[in-house]
Amino acid sequence: MSWGELTDTYVAAIQHDLADLPPDVTRVGVVRQPTGWFYAAVDENQPELGPPTDLLEAFRDAEADMKLQGFCEEGAHNAAWEQVGFDAAYRAYLEESAEAQAVLSELEDRLSAGESLALVCYENTDKKRCHRTILREQLEETS
């Protein structure tokens, strides 16, 4: 068996036909609390792979503080990411959460069976940090 292709993108790229995805890819949302319109852009959503609510709240609070200090949108986002230790906290969540581990294992099985997957959330990673990059790295380590 050959591994399926693993890619990632953001929802606006799909909506505006900017995402360069394989034709047979399954678009897997990795959003904890998706908006209604998010579902139209993905084939499925795995909320267990979204950042935990407490981490998201701490991040959003820090981001709002950075904006009040005069940071631009991207600058506030990325500075807040560092301030709350998002990368380490999200990696710890993925390792410690039984629900997240179960979904990761399922995605690994699907990839190993040859299915191509695209991880999808909201952030354009050209400008902002995003948990799906960490998630992709985790999945690539097992391939």
UniProtKB/TrEMBL annotation:
It comes from the Archaea. Residues 23-142 form the DUF488 domain. It holds the Pfam family DUF488-N3a. This is DUF488 domain-containing protein. It comes from Natrinema limicola JCM 13563.
